[in-house]
Fold this sequence. Notes:
The protein is an alpha/beta fold. Among the domains are: 2-283, 3-Layer(aba) Sandwich (Rossmann fold), CATH 3.40.50; 442-535, ANL, C-terminal domain (GMP Synthetase, Chain A, domain 3), CATH 3.30.300. It is 33% helix and 23% strand. It has 18 helices and 24 strands. The strands form five sheets. It has an eight-stranded mixed sheet with strand order 2-1-10-9-11-12-13-14, sandwiched between helices. α4 crosses α5. The longest helix is centred in the N-terminal third of the chain and has 18 residues, at 2-19. 49% of the residues are buried.
Amino acid sequence: MLLDTLSTKAFTARRLAASGMLAPTRPDRLARVVKALRGWGPTVAGGYAASAIRFPDATAIIDEHGALTFGDLHRRTNALAHAWSDDGIVEGDAIAILCRNHRGFVEAVVATSKLGAHALLLNTAFSGPQLAGVCASEDPRAVVYDDEFADRVDACAAGRRRYVAWTAPAPPPTGAPTLEALIERGDPADVVPPQVKGRIVILTSGTTGAPKGANRAEPKTLDPAAALLSKIPLRARERTLIAAPLFHSWGLLHFVLGLGLSSTLVLRRRFEPEETLRSIDEHGVTALVAVPVMLQRILECGPKVVRRYDTGALRVIAASGSALPGELATRVMDTFGDVLYNLYGSTEVAWATVATPADLRAAPGTAGRPPRGTVVRLYDTDGQEVGPGETGRIFVGNDLVFDGYTGGGGKAVIDGLVSSGDVGHFDEEGRLFVDGRDDEMIVSGGENVFPREVEDAICTLDGVAEVAAIGVEDDRFGQRLRAFVVRSEGSAIGADDVTAHVKANLARFKVPRDVIFLDALPRNATGKVLKRELAEPPDG
Protein backbone atom coordinates (compact mmCIF):
# COMPACT_ATOMS: atom_id res chain seq x y z
CA MET A 1 0.00 0.00 0.00
CA LEU A 2 2.83 2.41 0.90
CA LEU A 3 4.61 1.67 -2.38
CA ASP A 4 1.37 2.25 -4.31
CA THR A 5 0.87 5.58 -2.55
CA LEU A 6 4.45 6.69 -3.22
CA SER A 7 4.15 5.62 -6.86
CA THR A 8 0.94 7.61 -7.24
CA LYS A 9 2.46 10.72 -5.66
CA ALA A 10 5.53 10.45 -7.89
CA PHE A 11 3.29 10.06 -10.96
CA THR A 12 1.23 13.09 -9.89
CA ALA A 13 4.32 15.23 -9.36
CA ARG A 14 5.76 14.30 -12.76
CA ARG A 15 2.54 14.96 -14.63
CA LEU A 16 1.84 18.26 -12.90
CA ALA A 17 5.39 19.40 -13.56
CA ALA A 18 5.11 18.38 -17.23
CA SER A 19 1.88 20.38 -17.55
CA GLY A 20 3.45 23.44 -15.95
CA MET A 21 1.05 23.35 -13.00
CA LEU A 22 4.10 22.88 -10.75
CA ALA A 23 6.60 25.51 -11.83
CA PRO A 24 9.28 27.68 -10.20
CA THR A 25 7.73 30.54 -8.24
CA ARG A 26 9.26 33.54 -6.49
CA PRO A 27 10.06 32.53 -2.87
CA ASP A 28 7.84 35.25 -1.37
CA ARG A 29 4.92 34.16 -3.52
CA LEU A 30 5.57 30.47 -2.97
CA ALA A 31 5.17 30.87 0.80
CA ARG A 32 1.85 32.63 0.28
CA VAL A 33 0.67 29.95 -2.18
CA VAL A 34 1.51 27.18 0.31
CA LYS A 35 -0.39 29.04 3.05
CA ALA A 36 -3.42 29.55 0.78
CA LEU A 37 -3.55 25.91 -0.28
CA ARG A 38 -3.21 24.74 3.32
CA GLY A 39 -6.21 26.86 4.22
CA TRP A 40 -8.39 26.14 1.20
CA GLY A 41 -7.13 22.81 -0.03
CA PRO A 42 -7.56 21.85 -3.72
CA THR A 43 -10.90 23.66 -3.98
CA VAL A 44 -12.22 26.20 -6.45
CA ALA A 45 -11.48 28.93 -3.90
CA GLY A 46 -7.97 27.61 -3.36
CA GLY A 47 -7.28 27.44 -7.08
CA TYR A 48 -8.09 31.09 -7.68
CA ALA A 49 -6.34 32.23 -4.52
CA ALA A 50 -3.13 30.47 -5.63
CA SER A 51 -3.34 31.82 -9.19
CA ALA A 52 -3.96 35.34 -7.88
CA ILE A 53 -0.75 35.09 -5.85
CA ARG A 54 1.37 33.57 -8.64
CA PHE A 55 -0.05 35.54 -11.60
CA PRO A 56 -1.95 38.56 -10.24
CA ASP A 57 -1.80 40.52 -13.49
CA ALA A 58 -2.35 37.62 -15.91
CA THR A 59 -5.69 37.35 -17.72
CA ALA A 60 -8.04 34.86 -16.07
CA ILE A 61 -11.26 35.35 -18.06
CA ILE A 62 -12.23 36.87 -21.39
CA ASP A 63 -15.97 37.20 -21.95
CA GLU A 64 -18.36 39.60 -23.66
CA HIS A 65 -17.75 42.18 -20.93
CA GLY A 66 -13.98 42.13 -21.50
CA ALA A 67 -11.09 40.68 -19.51
CA LEU A 68 -10.41 40.09 -15.80
CA THR A 69 -7.06 39.26 -14.23
CA PHE A 70 -6.57 36.65 -11.52
CA GLY A 71 -6.03 39.48 -9.06
CA ASP A 72 -9.32 41.09 -10.15
CA LEU A 73 -11.21 37.81 -9.72
CA HIS A 74 -9.73 37.12 -6.31
CA ARG A 75 -10.71 40.55 -4.97
CA ARG A 76 -14.14 40.47 -6.61
CA THR A 77 -15.01 37.02 -5.25
CA ASN A 78 -13.79 38.05 -1.80
CA ALA A 79 -16.15 41.00 -1.97
CA LEU A 80 -19.03 38.86 -3.20
CA ALA A 81 -18.49 36.29 -0.45
CA HIS A 82 -18.45 39.03 2.21
CA ALA A 83 -21.59 40.63 0.77
CA TRP A 84 -23.41 37.29 0.81
CA SER A 85 -22.29 36.74 4.37
CA ASP A 86 -23.71 40.18 5.27
CA ASP A 87 -26.98 39.02 3.66
CA GLY A 88 -27.11 36.03 6.02
CA ILE A 89 -25.76 33.30 3.73
CA VAL A 90 -23.41 31.13 5.75
CA GLU A 91 -21.29 27.99 5.64
CA GLY A 92 -23.40 24.95 4.74
CA ASP A 93 -26.09 26.92 2.88
CA ALA A 94 -26.75 26.18 -0.79
CA ILE A 95 -26.76 28.75 -3.59
CA ALA A 96 -28.50 27.83 -6.84
CA ILE A 97 -26.80 29.17 -9.99
CA LEU A 98 -28.69 29.50 -13.29
CA CYS A 99 -26.19 31.14 -15.62
CA ARG A 100 -24.71 30.83 -19.07
CA ASN A 101 -20.94 30.84 -19.64
CA HIS A 102 -19.61 34.17 -18.38
CA ARG A 103 -17.77 35.77 -15.46
CA GLY A 104 -20.89 35.81 -13.29
CA PHE A 105 -21.03 32.00 -13.24
CA VAL A 106 -17.35 31.79 -12.32
CA GLU A 107 -17.56 34.45 -9.63
CA ALA A 108 -20.68 32.90 -8.08
CA VAL A 109 -19.08 29.44 -7.87
CA VAL A 110 -15.79 30.77 -6.45
CA ALA A 111 -17.50 33.01 -3.88
CA THR A 112 -19.73 30.10 -2.84
CA SER A 113 -16.61 27.98 -2.30
CA LYS A 114 -15.01 30.74 -0.24
CA LEU A 115 -18.07 30.79 2.03
CA GLY A 116 -18.07 27.02 2.51
CA ALA A 117 -21.52 26.98 0.90
CA HIS A 118 -22.77 24.47 -1.67
CA ALA A 119 -23.11 25.47 -5.34
CA LEU A 120 -26.23 23.98 -6.97
CA LEU A 121 -25.72 24.21 -10.73
CA LEU A 122 -29.00 24.58 -12.63
CA ASN A 123 -29.46 23.61 -16.27
CA THR A 124 -30.32 26.65 -18.40
CA ALA A 125 -32.65 24.50 -20.52
CA PHE A 126 -34.87 23.49 -17.58
CA SER A 127 -38.45 24.71 -17.58
CA GLY A 128 -39.97 26.74 -14.76
CA PRO A 129 -41.65 23.68 -13.18
CA GLN A 130 -38.38 21.69 -13.39
CA LEU A 131 -36.47 24.51 -11.68
CA ALA A 132 -39.16 24.77 -9.01
CA GLY A 133 -38.98 21.02 -8.41
CA VAL A 134 -35.20 21.08 -8.05
CA CYS A 135 -35.28 24.02 -5.64
CA ALA A 136 -38.03 22.38 -3.61
CA SER A 137 -35.89 19.26 -3.15
CA GLU A 138 -32.48 20.94 -2.77
CA ASP A 139 -33.71 23.98 -0.77
CA PRO A 140 -31.09 26.62 -1.70
CA ARG A 141 -30.88 29.76 0.40
CA ALA A 142 -30.46 31.96 -2.68
CA VAL A 143 -30.80 31.86 -6.48
CA VAL A 144 -28.30 33.53 -8.83
CA TYR A 145 -29.55 33.88 -12.40
CA ASP A 146 -29.15 35.74 -15.67
CA ASP A 147 -31.91 38.29 -16.21
CA GLU A 148 -33.15 36.42 -19.31
CA PHE A 149 -34.36 33.70 -16.90
CA ALA A 150 -36.22 36.09 -14.55
CA ASP A 151 -39.70 34.80 -15.41
CA ARG A 152 -38.58 31.18 -15.32
CA VAL A 153 -37.14 31.42 -11.79
CA ASP A 154 -40.16 33.07 -10.18
CA ALA A 155 -41.47 29.85 -8.65
CA CYS A 156 -38.14 28.39 -7.60
CA ALA A 157 -36.90 31.70 -6.13
CA ALA A 158 -40.05 32.34 -4.08
CA GLY A 159 -39.05 32.94 -0.46
CA ARG A 160 -35.34 32.92 -1.32
CA ARG A 161 -32.81 35.65 -1.93
CA ARG A 162 -32.41 36.55 -5.59
CA TYR A 163 -29.34 37.93 -7.36
CA VAL A 164 -28.83 38.75 -11.04
CA ALA A 165 -25.53 37.65 -12.57
CA TRP A 166 -25.82 38.96 -16.12
CA THR A 167 -28.02 41.79 -17.22
CA ALA A 168 -28.66 43.85 -20.31
CA PRO A 169 -27.59 47.51 -20.10
CA ALA A 170 -30.91 48.34 -18.44
CA PRO A 171 -31.43 47.35 -14.76
CA PRO A 172 -32.99 43.90 -14.26
CA PRO A 173 -36.80 44.08 -14.32
CA THR A 174 -37.18 42.17 -11.03
CA GLY A 175 -35.33 44.80 -9.02
CA ALA A 176 -33.14 42.05 -7.58
CA PRO A 177 -29.58 43.19 -6.76
CA THR A 178 -26.90 42.35 -9.28
CA LEU A 179 -23.68 40.55 -8.44
CA GLU A 180 -21.87 43.68 -9.61
CA ALA A 181 -23.70 45.76 -7.00
CA LEU A 182 -22.80 43.25 -4.27
CA ILE A 183 -19.15 43.27 -5.35
CA GLU A 184 -19.09 47.06 -5.19
CA ARG A 185 -20.34 47.07 -1.58
CA GLY A 186 -18.48 43.98 -0.36
CA ASP A 187 -15.14 43.92 1.44
CA PRO A 188 -12.36 42.77 -0.96
CA ALA A 189 -10.18 41.56 1.93
CA ASP A 190 -9.32 37.87 2.10
CA VAL A 191 -12.02 35.52 3.40
CA VAL A 192 -11.26 33.22 6.32
CA PRO A 193 -11.36 29.62 5.01
CA PRO A 194 -14.44 27.72 6.25
CA GLN A 195 -14.10 24.78 8.62
CA VAL A 196 -16.03 22.51 6.25
CA LYS A 197 -15.51 22.78 2.51
CA GLY A 198 -18.56 23.26 0.31
CA ARG A 199 -19.76 20.89 -2.38
CA ILE A 200 -20.68 21.37 -6.00
CA VAL A 201 -24.01 19.72 -6.81
CA ILE A 202 -24.45 18.84 -10.48
CA LEU A 203 -27.86 17.82 -11.77
CA THR A 204 -28.47 14.84 -13.99
CA SER A 205 -29.74 15.86 -17.42
CA GLY A 206 -33.32 14.77 -16.82
CA THR A 207 -33.49 13.08 -20.24
CA THR A 208 -35.10 9.97 -18.75
CA GLY A 209 -36.95 11.49 -15.80
CA ALA A 210 -36.86 14.28 -13.22
CA PRO A 211 -33.35 15.74 -12.75
CA LYS A 212 -31.55 14.65 -9.58
CA GLY A 213 -28.71 16.33 -7.72
CA ALA A 214 -25.44 14.38 -7.81
CA ASN A 215 -23.50 15.09 -4.64
CA ARG A 216 -19.75 15.34 -5.11
CA ALA A 217 -17.17 16.76 -2.74
CA GLU A 218 -14.35 18.82 -4.20
CA PRO A 219 -11.26 16.61 -4.72
CA LYS A 220 -8.95 16.01 -1.74
CA THR A 221 -5.77 15.73 -3.83
CA LEU A 222 -4.44 16.63 -7.25
CA ASP A 223 -4.10 12.95 -8.24
CA PRO A 224 -7.25 12.97 -10.45
CA ALA A 225 -6.05 16.10 -12.27
CA ALA A 226 -2.68 14.47 -12.95
CA ALA A 227 -4.38 11.33 -14.28
CA LEU A 228 -6.49 13.32 -16.72
CA LEU A 229 -3.57 15.50 -17.82
CA SER A 230 -1.65 12.33 -18.65
CA LYS A 231 -4.33 11.60 -21.27
CA ILE A 232 -5.33 15.11 -22.43
CA PRO A 233 -2.19 17.29 -22.77
CA LEU A 234 -3.44 20.61 -21.46
CA ARG A 235 -0.71 23.04 -20.41
CA ALA A 236 -0.47 25.84 -17.87
CA ARG A 237 -1.10 29.48 -18.81
CA GLU A 238 -2.63 28.66 -22.17
CA ARG A 239 -6.02 29.79 -23.47
CA THR A 240 -9.02 27.48 -23.25
CA LEU A 241 -12.35 28.22 -24.90
CA ILE A 242 -15.06 26.40 -22.95
CA ALA A 243 -18.00 26.11 -25.33
CA ALA A 244 -19.66 23.31 -23.34
CA PRO A 245 -22.05 24.62 -20.65
CA LEU A 246 -20.27 25.34 -17.38
CA PHE A 247 -23.20 23.92 -15.40
CA HIS A 248 -22.56 20.53 -17.00
CA SER A 249 -19.91 18.19 -15.59
CA TRP A 250 -17.80 18.44 -18.79
CA GLY A 251 -17.63 22.23 -18.83
CA LEU A 252 -17.20 22.36 -15.07
CA LEU A 253 -14.32 19.87 -15.20
CA HIS A 254 -12.36 22.16 -17.51
CA PHE A 255 -13.21 25.20 -15.41
CA VAL A 256 -11.69 23.42 -12.40
CA LEU A 257 -8.69 22.16 -14.40
CA GLY A 258 -8.22 25.69 -15.68
CA LEU A 259 -7.85 26.91 -12.11
CA GLY A 260 -5.00 24.54 -11.38
CA LEU A 261 -3.33 25.39 -14.69
CA SER A 262 -3.95 29.13 -14.27
CA SER A 263 -5.45 29.05 -17.76
CA THR A 264 -7.12 31.98 -19.45
CA LEU A 265 -10.75 30.95 -19.95
CA VAL A 266 -12.46 32.30 -23.05
CA LEU A 267 -16.23 32.28 -22.50
CA ARG A 268 -19.22 33.10 -24.68
CA ARG A 269 -22.78 33.01 -23.38
CA ARG A 270 -24.16 31.23 -26.44
CA PHE A 271 -22.53 28.79 -28.80
CA GLU A 272 -22.34 29.99 -32.39
CA PRO A 273 -20.19 27.90 -34.76
CA GLU A 274 -18.53 30.71 -36.70
CA GLU A 275 -18.18 32.89 -33.61
CA THR A 276 -16.32 29.99 -31.98
CA LEU A 277 -13.90 29.87 -34.92
CA ARG A 278 -13.49 33.64 -34.73
CA SER A 279 -12.70 33.48 -31.00
CA ILE A 280 -10.13 30.71 -31.54
CA ASP A 281 -8.42 32.93 -34.11
CA GLU A 282 -8.72 36.22 -32.22
CA HIS A 283 -7.49 34.94 -28.86
CA GLY A 284 -5.00 32.30 -29.99
CA VAL A 285 -7.01 29.57 -28.28
CA THR A 286 -5.00 26.39 -27.67
CA ALA A 287 -7.80 24.17 -26.30
CA LEU A 288 -11.48 23.94 -27.28
CA VAL A 289 -13.87 22.19 -24.90
CA ALA A 290 -17.08 21.14 -26.62
CA VAL A 291 -19.80 18.53 -26.88
CA PRO A 292 -19.91 16.49 -30.12
CA VAL A 293 -22.91 18.27 -31.64
CA MET A 294 -20.95 21.55 -31.42
CA LEU A 295 -18.13 20.03 -33.45
CA GLN A 296 -20.67 18.87 -36.01
CA ARG A 297 -22.13 22.39 -36.23
CA ILE A 298 -18.65 23.84 -36.80
CA LEU A 299 -17.97 21.41 -39.64
CA GLU A 300 -21.35 22.26 -41.17
CA CYS A 301 -20.04 25.80 -41.71
CA GLY A 302 -18.12 24.26 -44.59
CA PRO A 303 -14.41 24.25 -45.48
CA LYS A 304 -14.52 27.76 -46.99
CA VAL A 305 -15.75 29.31 -43.71
CA VAL A 306 -13.42 27.22 -41.53
CA ARG A 307 -10.41 28.32 -43.59
CA ARG A 308 -11.20 32.00 -42.96
CA TYR A 309 -9.93 31.62 -39.42
CA ASP A 310 -6.50 30.70 -38.08
CA THR A 311 -7.00 27.68 -35.82
CA GLY A 312 -3.37 26.62 -35.95
CA ALA A 313 -2.81 27.28 -32.24
CA LEU A 314 -5.30 24.52 -31.30
CA ARG A 315 -3.42 21.69 -29.61
CA VAL A 316 -6.46 20.08 -27.98
CA ILE A 317 -10.09 19.65 -28.93
CA ALA A 318 -11.69 17.94 -25.94
CA ALA A 319 -15.11 16.37 -26.52
CA SER A 320 -17.57 14.70 -24.16
CA GLY A 321 -21.16 14.94 -22.94
CA SER A 322 -22.75 12.69 -25.56
CA ALA A 323 -21.78 9.99 -28.05
CA LEU A 324 -19.01 10.88 -30.53
CA PRO A 325 -19.65 8.97 -33.77
CA GLY A 326 -16.49 7.57 -35.33
CA GLU A 327 -17.27 9.27 -38.65
CA LEU A 328 -17.48 12.68 -36.92
CA ALA A 329 -14.22 12.09 -35.05
CA THR A 330 -12.44 11.33 -38.32
CA ARG A 331 -13.81 14.45 -40.05
CA VAL A 332 -12.80 16.68 -37.10
CA MET A 333 -9.24 15.35 -37.18
CA ASP A 334 -9.05 15.63 -40.96
CA THR A 335 -10.03 19.30 -40.59
CA PHE A 336 -8.07 20.42 -37.52
CA GLY A 337 -5.35 17.79 -37.21
CA ASP A 338 -4.94 14.92 -34.77
CA VAL A 339 -5.81 16.99 -31.71
CA LEU A 340 -9.16 15.40 -30.76
CA TYR A 341 -9.60 13.74 -27.36
CA ASN A 342 -12.88 12.07 -26.39
CA LEU A 343 -13.77 11.52 -22.73
CA TYR A 344 -16.47 9.04 -21.76
CA GLY A 345 -18.10 9.39 -18.38
CA SER A 346 -21.28 10.47 -16.62
CA THR A 347 -22.45 12.87 -13.96
CA GLU A 348 -22.26 10.05 -11.41
CA VAL A 349 -18.83 8.52 -12.24
CA ALA A 350 -17.04 11.66 -13.55
CA TRP A 351 -14.87 9.92 -16.13
CA ALA A 352 -14.29 6.32 -17.15
CA THR A 353 -12.09 6.39 -20.27
CA VAL A 354 -10.33 8.79 -22.62
CA ALA A 355 -9.73 8.18 -26.34
CA THR A 356 -6.61 9.85 -27.72
CA PRO A 357 -6.21 10.85 -31.38
CA ALA A 358 -4.24 7.62 -31.93
CA ASP A 359 -7.14 5.61 -30.46
CA LEU A 360 -9.68 7.43 -32.63
CA ARG A 361 -7.62 6.87 -35.78
CA ALA A 362 -7.08 3.18 -35.02
CA ALA A 363 -10.64 2.48 -33.87
CA PRO A 364 -13.12 5.27 -34.75
CA GLY A 365 -16.00 5.29 -32.29
CA THR A 366 -13.97 4.01 -29.33
CA ALA A 367 -14.31 5.59 -25.91
CA GLY A 368 -10.65 4.82 -25.23
CA ARG A 369 -8.93 3.46 -22.14
CA PRO A 370 -9.17 4.31 -18.41
CA PRO A 371 -6.71 6.90 -17.06
CA ARG A 372 -4.48 5.99 -14.13
CA GLY A 373 -6.48 5.61 -10.93
CA THR A 374 -9.69 4.64 -12.72
CA VAL A 375 -11.02 1.08 -12.88
CA VAL A 376 -13.57 0.04 -15.52
CA ARG A 377 -15.17 -3.41 -15.53
CA LEU A 378 -18.06 -4.94 -17.43
CA TYR A 379 -20.63 -7.21 -15.75
CA ASP A 380 -23.51 -9.28 -17.07
CA THR A 381 -26.99 -9.22 -15.56
CA ASP A 382 -25.92 -11.81 -12.97
CA GLY A 383 -23.05 -9.65 -11.73
CA GLN A 384 -20.35 -11.76 -13.38
CA GLU A 385 -17.47 -10.00 -15.17
CA VAL A 386 -17.42 -10.49 -18.95
CA GLY A 387 -14.41 -10.86 -21.23
CA PRO A 388 -13.11 -8.93 -24.29
CA GLY A 389 -15.67 -8.69 -27.08
CA GLU A 390 -18.58 -9.50 -24.76
CA THR A 391 -21.17 -6.87 -23.96
CA GLY A 392 -21.75 -5.98 -20.33
CA ARG A 393 -22.90 -3.22 -18.01
CA ILE A 394 -20.18 -0.60 -17.44
CA PHE A 395 -19.04 -0.05 -13.84
CA VAL A 396 -16.44 2.53 -12.81
CA GLY A 397 -14.32 3.35 -9.79
CA ASN A 398 -12.15 6.43 -9.19
CA ASP A 399 -11.59 9.26 -6.70
CA LEU A 400 -14.35 11.41 -8.23
CA VAL A 401 -17.29 8.98 -8.22
CA PHE A 402 -20.27 10.78 -6.73
CA ASP A 403 -21.43 10.36 -3.13
CA GLY A 404 -25.04 9.58 -4.07
CA TYR A 405 -28.05 11.66 -5.04
CA THR A 406 -28.87 14.55 -2.75
CA GLY A 407 -32.42 13.26 -2.34
CA GLY A 408 -31.14 9.83 -1.36
CA GLY A 409 -30.27 6.71 -3.31
CA GLY A 410 -27.61 6.12 -5.93
CA LYS A 411 -26.56 3.94 -8.84
CA ALA A 412 -26.02 0.18 -8.78
CA VAL A 413 -22.71 -0.90 -7.21
CA ILE A 414 -20.71 -4.11 -7.83
CA ASP A 415 -17.35 -4.79 -6.15
CA GLY A 416 -17.22 -1.16 -5.04
CA LEU A 417 -17.65 0.11 -8.61
CA VAL A 418 -20.54 2.37 -9.66
CA SER A 419 -22.72 1.84 -12.72
CA SER A 420 -22.41 4.41 -15.48
CA GLY A 421 -25.86 3.40 -16.76
CA ASP A 422 -24.41 2.21 -20.07
CA VAL A 423 -23.45 -1.08 -21.66
CA GLY A 424 -20.36 -1.69 -23.75
CA HIS A 425 -17.50 -3.98 -24.67
CA PHE A 426 -13.70 -4.01 -24.74
CA ASP A 427 -11.79 -4.91 -27.88
CA GLU A 428 -8.65 -7.04 -27.82
CA GLU A 429 -6.51 -3.90 -27.38
CA GLY A 430 -8.34 -2.92 -24.20
CA ARG A 431 -10.27 -0.07 -25.79
CA LEU A 432 -13.82 0.48 -24.56
CA PHE A 433 -16.77 0.84 -26.93
CA VAL A 434 -20.08 2.11 -25.53
CA ASP A 435 -22.97 0.22 -27.11
CA GLY A 436 -25.75 2.30 -25.55
CA ARG A 437 -27.79 2.91 -22.44
CA ASP A 438 -28.51 -0.23 -20.45
CA ASP A 439 -32.21 0.65 -20.57
CA GLU A 440 -32.24 1.24 -24.37
CA MET A 441 -31.48 -2.30 -25.49
CA ILE A 442 -34.40 -3.90 -27.29
CA VAL A 443 -35.14 -7.54 -28.05
CA SER A 444 -36.33 -7.92 -31.64
CA GLY A 445 -37.30 -11.44 -32.69
CA GLY A 446 -35.24 -12.84 -29.82
CA GLU A 447 -32.08 -10.87 -30.76
CA ASN A 448 -30.52 -8.17 -28.59
CA VAL A 449 -30.18 -4.85 -30.45
CA PHE A 450 -28.51 -1.65 -29.20
CA PRO A 451 -29.63 1.53 -30.99
CA ARG A 452 -26.13 3.08 -30.69
CA GLU A 453 -24.60 0.54 -33.10
CA VAL A 454 -27.29 1.25 -35.69
CA GLU A 455 -26.92 5.01 -35.24
CA ASP A 456 -23.17 4.76 -35.85
CA ALA A 457 -23.78 2.77 -39.03
CA ILE A 458 -26.32 5.23 -40.42
CA CYS A 459 -23.97 8.16 -39.64
CA THR A 460 -21.52 6.83 -42.23
CA LEU A 461 -24.08 7.16 -45.02
CA ASP A 462 -23.48 10.15 -47.28
CA GLY A 463 -26.29 12.66 -46.94
CA VAL A 464 -26.95 12.00 -43.24
CA ALA A 465 -26.27 14.85 -40.81
CA GLU A 466 -27.72 13.37 -37.62
CA VAL A 467 -29.51 10.23 -36.54
CA ALA A 468 -31.18 8.75 -33.48
CA ALA A 469 -32.78 5.32 -33.09
CA ILE A 470 -35.25 4.07 -30.50
CA GLY A 471 -37.14 0.87 -29.81
CA VAL A 472 -40.90 0.71 -30.39
CA GLU A 473 -43.42 -2.07 -29.83
CA ASP A 474 -44.02 -4.58 -32.63
CA ASP A 475 -46.82 -7.20 -32.71
CA ARG A 476 -44.70 -9.72 -34.62
CA PHE A 477 -41.17 -9.26 -33.24
CA GLY A 478 -41.92 -7.82 -29.78
CA GLN A 479 -39.88 -4.71 -30.50
CA ARG A 480 -38.31 -3.07 -33.55
CA LEU A 481 -36.08 -0.10 -34.26
CA ARG A 482 -37.29 3.23 -35.53
CA ALA A 483 -34.67 5.63 -36.93
CA PHE A 484 -34.97 9.41 -37.01
CA VAL A 485 -32.71 11.00 -39.61
CA VAL A 486 -31.71 14.59 -40.34
CA ARG A 487 -30.49 15.01 -43.91
CA SER A 488 -27.40 17.02 -44.79
CA GLU A 489 -28.06 20.24 -46.70
CA GLY A 490 -28.95 19.39 -50.28
CA SER A 491 -29.34 15.67 -49.57
CA ALA A 492 -32.26 13.75 -51.09
CA ILE A 493 -31.70 10.33 -49.52
CA GLY A 494 -34.80 8.32 -48.70
CA ALA A 495 -35.81 5.61 -46.27
CA ASP A 496 -34.77 2.85 -48.69
CA ASP A 497 -31.25 4.29 -48.87
CA VAL A 498 -30.99 4.19 -45.08
CA THR A 499 -32.28 0.64 -44.65
CA ALA A 500 -30.13 -0.66 -47.52
CA HIS A 501 -27.04 0.90 -45.95
CA VAL A 502 -27.73 -0.71 -42.57
CA LYS A 503 -28.48 -4.06 -44.23
CA ALA A 504 -25.11 -3.90 -46.02
CA ASN A 505 -23.19 -3.21 -42.80
CA LEU A 506 -25.07 -4.94 -39.96
CA ALA A 507 -27.15 -8.04 -39.31
CA ARG A 508 -30.64 -8.05 -40.85
CA PHE A 509 -32.38 -7.96 -37.46
CA LYS A 510 -30.71 -4.59 -36.80
CA VAL A 511 -32.26 -2.90 -39.82
CA PRO A 512 -34.80 -0.26 -38.67
CA ARG A 513 -38.37 -1.00 -39.80
CA ASP A 514 -39.24 2.71 -39.89
CA VAL A 515 -37.19 5.72 -41.00
CA ILE A 516 -38.57 9.16 -40.19
CA PHE A 517 -36.93 12.33 -41.51
CA LEU A 518 -36.78 15.42 -39.28
CA ASP A 519 -35.41 18.93 -39.66
CA ALA A 520 -33.54 18.57 -36.35
CA LEU A 521 -33.28 16.17 -33.44
CA PRO A 522 -34.54 17.37 -30.06
CA ARG A 523 -31.53 17.95 -27.80
CA ASN A 524 -30.85 19.30 -24.34
CA ALA A 525 -28.33 22.03 -23.55
CA THR A 526 -25.43 19.57 -23.49
CA GLY A 527 -26.22 18.06 -26.86
CA LYS A 528 -27.83 14.81 -25.71
CA VAL A 529 -30.72 13.68 -27.87
CA LEU A 530 -34.02 13.69 -26.00
CA LYS A 531 -35.20 10.24 -27.02
CA ARG A 532 -38.13 10.51 -24.67
CA GLU A 533 -39.55 13.20 -26.97
CA LEU A 534 -38.93 11.04 -30.04
CA ALA A 535 -40.90 8.23 -28.42
CA GLU A 536 -43.93 10.44 -27.84
CA PRO A 537 -46.84 10.26 -30.34
CA PRO A 538 -46.86 13.20 -32.81
CA ASP A 539 -49.69 14.88 -30.93
CA GLY A 540 -48.26 13.92 -27.51
